[in-house]
Amino acid sequence: ASYARIKETEPAIKAFLTLNEDNARTEAHALDKRLGDGGEHGLLFGLPAGIKDNIVTEGLLTTCASQFLSNYNPIYSATSARKLKEADAVTIGKLNMDEFAMGGSNENSSFYPTRNPWNTEYVPGGSSGGSAASVAAGQVYFSLGSDTGGSIRQPAAYCGIVGLKPTYGLVSRFGLVAFASSLDQIGPLTKNVEDAAYVLQAIAGYDASDSTSANVEIPDYTAALTGDVKGLRIGVPKEYLGAGIDPRVKEAVMNALKVYESLGATWEEVSLPHTDYAIATYYLLASSEASSNLARFDGVRYGVRADNPDNLIDLYRKSRSQGFGPEVKRRIMLGTYALSSGYYDAYYLKAQKVRTLIKQDFDNVFNQYDLIIGPTAPTPAFRIGEQIGDPLTMYLNDICTIPVSLAGVPAISVPCGTADGLPIGLQIIGKAFDESTVLRAAHAFE
Ligand code: GLN
């Protein structure tokens, strides 16, 4: 049924880069047989899943939507992909994205842009745009995405589905092609909050293969879905509802707060005073880390190698010039500059200090409140082509998601309305490792 749906919708949506049809059918038949034999059931038994193409999958092309990795066939699977398999989910294919997860519209895919299922003239968001569109179009039950500065939550908001960025360290990054290692986090994109709880249950947990993996107890996430939010204290940052936020988005968020009031929660305006510095801080830190992480793509170890180099340096230069797209090159240059001697203190180190201040903003609010609620993105989805020529405008779409990533705390986007037929997302942000409260509040609202 999943492949039939893909056949029907994919020409208009273009969510997938690679399909896994033969293997998926074999796996599904094996599960079917096990069911008939009365065998064990994994938590995600038989569910068709899509995986973002920066999560490595053994024997299944993993391109990061880059020409550089257009022939990269991994010899191992990411921990998160392995855990999906162990939970008996079936991998339907690999999903389109902005190249190396750099972008917010899917237009940076070096193959083709994915389109928003609600209106195919609009972007699905990014970088996990394929992950969001495939769920919204009913091609898969759920997908995995990655979120460095908003890449799960923003496309979930634009496509009218649920997207959860877990606390940094909760889900293993082993086998996630690194963009900015101190920010990257894998999480689920689903049709509803209960599904998000199940998928998180399957992929969360300590992994010795990831040095930043957190060794924390994993609760039963579905047990949190009680519908009861009485007495929850919600902080609403004034910085997330001010200038630059579409009035229709603001109205949808205010209506959601009324729903919480009616359910017995309380909310008050709060301040995250360093929000204004978040975008600059993020683009310095994320680009710095990216410039270092992407040094491994040299034309020797992975992916495509340029033809006829004059010597080794020329091989690097040609492979990288041909393999990387314009946004990736922009980030590498920005990051290399920020890390270079003489500029390190002024840019990289300064950004690290501001990151600490941003994290403290969240700590201060969480001293008094259980959750922070605001919009996921300042506007609904925009038209394909509308912002691609203007990177700074594109970067501003992440103003409400980036501070959360810098603080490392969990957040979910749930649908909270529409404007001109395009979905709006409500962002619910929690304390570190308190995914249960985030899911409880999201589920009660939904
Ligand atoms: N849009 C942001 C960027 O381009 C976030 C991307 C992400 O979370 N992977 O960096």
TrEMBL record:
Q: Name one Pfam family in it.
A: Amidase
Q: Is-annotated flag, keyword Protein biosynthesis?
A: yes
Q: Under which main EC class is this enzyme filed?
A: ligase
Positions of the Amidase domain: 1-439
| Gene3D superfamilies cross-referenced by the UniProt entry | Amidase signature (AS) domain
Q: Which GO terms describe its molecular function?
A: ATP binding; glutaminyl-tRNA synthase (glutamine-hydrolyzing) activity
Q: What does the entry give for GO biological process? A: translation
What keywords would UniProt list here? ATP-binding, Ligase, Nucleotide-binding, Protein biosynthesis
Q: Which residues cross the membrane?
A: none
Q: Which NCBIfam families match?
A: gatA (TIGR00132)
Family according to the record: Belongs to the amidase family. GatA subfamily.
Q: By what name is this protein known?
A: Glutamyl-tRNA(Gln) amidotransferase subunit A
Q: Which organism is it from?
A: Paenibacillus soyae
